[in-house]
Amino acid sequence: MTVCVSRCYIAARNGMNPKREGLTQTMILNSDGRGFGLVFLCLLLLPKLTTAQQLTLNLTPMPVSVQAGTGSLRVDSSFSVALAGHTEPRLERAVERFLQQLARQTALPLSLKPAKTPQATLIIRTDHASKEIEEVDEDESYVLEVSTAGAKLTAPTPLGAVHGLQTFLQLVDISPDGFAAAAVAIQDKPRFPWRGLMIDSARHFIPVEVIRRNLDGMEAVKMNVFHWHLSENQGFRAESKRLPKLHELGSDGLYYTQEEIRDLIAYARDRGIRVVPEFDLPGHSTAWFVGHPELASGPGPYQIERRWGVFDPAFDPTSERTYRFLDEFIGEMAKLFPDQFFHVGGDEVNGKQWDANQQIQEFMRAHGIKNNQALQAYFNKRLQAVVEKHGKSMIGWDEILDPSLPKDITIQSWRGPASLAAAAKQGYRGLLSNGYYLDLGWPAARHYAVDPMSGDAANLSPEEKQRILGGESCMWSEYVNAENVDSRIWPRNAAIAERLWSPEEVHDPASMYTRLDSISARLEWLGLTHRTYYRRMLQRIAGSAATPDEFTALRTLTDLVEPVKDYTRQQTALAEATSLTPMNRVVDAVPLESDTGRRFGELVDKFVSTSCLDAEIEARLRTHLLLWRDNDAKLQPLAQRSLLVQEVAGRSQDLSALASAGLSALHAVSKRQPAPDTWKVQQFAIMEQLKKPKAQLLLIPIPAVQKLVEAAASGGACVGAKQ
Amino acid sequence: MTVCVSRCYIAARNGMNPKREGLTQTMILNSDGRGFGLVFLCLLLLPKLTTAQQLTLNLTPMPVSVQAGTGSLRVDSSFSVALAGHTEPRLERAVERFLQQLARQTALPLSLKPAKTPQATLIIRTDHASKEIEEVDEDESYVLEVSTAGAKLTAPTPLGAVHGLQTFLQLVDISPDGFAAAAVAIQDKPRFPWRGLMIDSARHFIPVEVIRRNLDGMEAVKMNVFHWHLSENQGFRAESKRLPKLHELGSDGLYYTQEEIRDLIAYARDRGIRVVPEFDLPGHSTAWFVGHPELASGPGPYQIERRWGVFDPAFDPTSERTYRFLDEFIGEMAKLFPDQFFHVGGDEVNGKQWDANQQIQEFMRAHGIKNNQALQAYFNKRLQAVVEKHGKSMIGWDEILDPSLPKDITIQSWRGPASLAAAAKQGYRGLLSNGYYLDLGWPAARHYAVDPMSGDAANLSPEEKQRILGGESCMWSEYVNAENVDSRIWPRNAAIAERLWSPEEVHDPASMYTRLDSISARLEWLGLTHRTYYRRMLQRIAGSAATPDEFTALRTLTDLVEPVKDYTRQQTALAEATSLTPMNRVVDAVPLESDTGRRFGELVDKFVSTSCLDAEIEARLRTHLLLWRDNDAKLQPLAQRSLLVQEVAGRSQDLSALASAGLSALHAVSKRQPAPDTWKVQQFAIMEQLKKPKAQLLLIPIPAVQKLVEAAASGGACVGAKQ
């Protein structure tokens, strides 16, 4: 045995010996039994020295319980999957999808069909079918056991099986012995039954293939609701056969056909994902009125809105015509979308058309409706009756909450956790979206820290807590389109997915970030373009005459900036953006969270925590800062040739200035005595200037450099405690 | 005017002034007439200072004649295209495709339909229709005139129009004033009428969507023949309705349906591309015999071949059954593939089955057939009659050339230019493929230097020269699959495309490489994955637990290696590769030509040409070498965790050793006196060791480091002359 171990060790180590290299190579690459010989034997006998640890497993979302086993399960081209217990075509498709994905991850030539025999590497035992139409609160649990001999996935229904297969895919990784899945016993189920992603495909149309690959991404991180925002001032995106003027006149020809919608729903169902459509009423509705001005509260005609913001047009809640129309429309859509829930929007009605309409004002007086809020509550009550008539349960944004509405409605909170808790107290079910708006450009860690059960919700009774169904991340699309939308959703959405699936106690941002890198790479196998879009967009900005060095300089800058946050993009715009504005600027191209900036910040924190004594970190910081300081000189020639680079020339100078400040701080730190106050004041003044957005971009390493300045000002050694 | 110029200048320069920045931004991004004001006026009045120069235009292939105009044509969202003269649906689709591509390149929201009015930014005037089935030697010329006021594209037929649109797309680039096309007058037509790419989709099946995006790439570089290698020992890839056992038993289920084939032909025709099918006969034919063993010259049964190489199975040329079968098969395929040419392969028949078959030997004696070559000529004569019967002209590899065959056949030379010239002398038409084999891993410059009219062909008479129709690059697929095939074709194929289109005098490799970078970036907009595949494959190799620094270290190494060249991949393999071998190793992932390695070589050449006196270049070389020397230490931890990285651990050490030698040479050079001979001998001995392939990889910077060593040995100053 000792001999065998050491031979294996040598074979695995020594790439320079042809004979042994040959063995190693065969071992990785073949599984047809030819040429395994000694090494394969070794693999069978060799006791594994490492054991899987929960936090070294790159699983996102982290399962409820992970017990490390011994060794790992070899994954080679003989890998097979068998279905035991309940089977159905959806499960077979899930297995084929799984095998395809495994083949993509590993490049192993796998047979892509479930095995016919009960003997297989992975055996899936499903107890019974799930509901014909997926419901909230179905059992999604699964148990996954992996040993050196094989793997077993057990789940009550196909929903759990689908989730467990994703966990298995994340376990498979290259190891010193080839591809393998760590031996492990996992018991898992979601913390919340509603884990959604909303995509606004109304403001900018998002083609169906883009939605599809995002559903693949959702499956990978176990999200189970796709909330499809289908109507807006800027577009009506679903085909209506009964009321065709809606999509014909309200969409610029950019809409989903009913066939596409049905296909997408089936695609989602395969992945354990419900599809909840949203048709926003009574505001956010200009696009409806292009074809149906008679439904509005103000005189037409209407045109598709091109600007962003909250606009006046709103349905006339006092006209019976409105309800007859909605009855017909919702009747049609209720058949198209099988889900139990029907989202009616309900947000941001500014009431101006109501105020200006004589008839509406008379109606309010006649019916004792005191204000616009009450008028919207009246509308919602009527609307709820229509929705219920067609067999659906109404869901809407905060604004639909009114004690006069039945408890059957569900509130999606965009305003904050307080309104969610208040709704739960009043007996309404609710979802949190406040804190999960992907378009606001927050770092993943900030979303990750938002918990539906925090704040007021923490003090709810168990029964009230039950009413908090979960949450939804929201991808509003003022500044995204097919080209960059994946990058605005991923990988940050995976952090939200973990928040909604994993136990509350899983909340270490450092672990999350490590695993986020890994899941982000894995998501690429699904065809998501959240990484590949970037260079392409930068190439457009740089132009085809950019030299490789110039392109690198551009990338160095853009890797360190982020678009302005929250709602400041609109405010910092120097020319008003519309739905027709090209999205080809640096602000459209850079990721919403700068990895390079974050890592530099971590490095500075580490340096400061050593009381600035770690010479190796200091050297690394200096290398970064020198590169950044000198980058502007490399970039400026390109800025002279490309207007899109020219726009960020100022930020490039800023980066240089910031790096100079950082270098000056490093220099001061190395003297190990407090730098003069005048110097500190000067540096901080520079930094304050740099903090201002320019070209709608923020320079990300500023806080880290500020820490260096502070360290320098205090003489380095004393600042460790400040952390 | 002066005031206006300087204001524009300031507006374009000063990114820090919000007001001016706003104007700049509007100018780039909008064309709806809002907010243009002063700046737009300036743009109209501002005389352009730069004039377009032929060699600064990033056009590939370079047109026959390019005359620089003054200024450039603004390309914004008002851009439109009108069709004048002859129109047909194919032209309208070409315009839509062009507009879509322009929108992708610029992210401008363009209207994607041809304009209804004769007023448009670009007016296309086509004289008449091209042939219903595209023929060799049709007029593909076009004239493109771009001025500040508009653009005009004139072409005899849609073929020229399609080519001219691609030239226009390459003219559009970001400029100091936004997107623009340089003012220019271009007259253009191809040097050769046959400019092909062959893809072998038989050895490894290449999915139809991969073929499709490669046709897009061909259109971009004006190639006009897709040669589809559809049958091999390893697979029969076309559906036959009359003889379904061919694809049912010969393809592992991986074949193209007739509907897919028809769609692809239409797709190609839209792009001015002919599709020539190849069914390889009488050798390379094992896959046919799985379903039809009765056609072979040896006893069956047969199985799909998994190994690579030349194998014994061959059609029985003495049996009438063979010709009846081929008559039926070719009859069916001749209808499916409309092109005039039908490729019958004909290469590499080893004759072993013929030698061993008693009946065949008797037949040869009875008919006075002296040897196997003569037997194959007999087969080809019979085959040619079948091909002709079905209205096609036969084309095949070198081996079909025999004086007994009619002059109507065409020879594709894989053996060399001599055989091509010999064929032309004998009255046969021919194509060059020798020198254009993309799978051999040559640098683009080497393919670029191969000319169909060089060698013996240069001495042919004008009439004989006419018979040389052009050439074809060949992508044989032993070591490519859907994941990496784009990267094996592009961008190098663009250099071959230029060789076949542009005048013979266009042959400067430096210019070619500059433009290759640019076309490579543009090809990404077509969905080609020749750049994006790389990181994904490296991620698989590194595993998801690799840290960012480790991943960078892997990339640093892999950027400096290339797979072994020519046919040595087979020879250096330590375990025999088959069609089922996973292609997940570094050798499968790295590009076939290392840009980093090439650029380092150029830098060394430049350094040496300054007699090693340029301190800035010296510093840059040192930076590279230090990074490489220290890279191995960063990579080794990852090699311990990933078997796929472990395989290249030896090469990583080699890179470190090479860089140390380079640093030692730089150090010696800086002393400016000849380094001792013993040192030189020692360094060269190291280099000789490093030249040996390891893990089937070559270390690319070796010759460049050798030059440094030589420079050091001669004291630096004297080696400039050696260049």
Shape of chain A: globular
Mean pLDDT figure of chain A: 91
Helical proportion of chain A, percent range = 40-55%
Write down the CATH class of the largest domain in chain A: Alpha Beta
N-C termini distance of chain A:
51 Å
Structural class of chain A: alpha/beta
The largest pleated sheet of chain A is described as:
8 strands, parallel
CATH superfamily of the largest domain in chain A: Glycosidases
Number of domains of chain A: 4
Question: Which spans of chain A of ≥5 residues are poorly predicted at pLDDT below 50?
Answer: 1-55, 718-723
Tally the helices of chain A: 29
Report the largest inter-chain contact: A-B, 77 and 78 residues
What is the name of the CATH architecture of the largest domain in chain A? Alpha-Beta Barrel
Question: What's the gist of this structure?
Answer:
Chain A has 29 helices and 19 strands. Mean pLDDT of chain A is about 90; it is low at about 1-55 and about 720-723.
List keywords for this structure.
homodimer, about 725 residues, alpha/beta, Chitobiase, domain 2, TIM Barrel, 4 domains, eight-stranded parallel sheet, seven-stranded mixed sheet, 29 helices, about 45% helix, disordered N terminus
Descriptive overview:
The structure is a homodimer of 723-residue chains. By secondary structure, chain A is an alpha/beta fold. Chain A folds into four domains: 1-47, no CATH class; 49-188, Chitobiase, domain 2 (2-Layer Sandwich), CATH 3.30.379; 194-524, Glycosidases (TIM Barrel), CATH 3.20.20; 532-722, no CATH class. Chain A contains 29 helices and 19 strands. The first copy, chain A, has an eight-stranded parallel β-sheet with strand order 12-9-8-17-16-15-14-13. The two termini of chain A are 51 Å apart. Chains A and B meet through helix 2, strand 6, helix 19, helix 20 and helix 26 of A and helix 2, strand 6, helix 19, helix 20 and helix 26 of B.
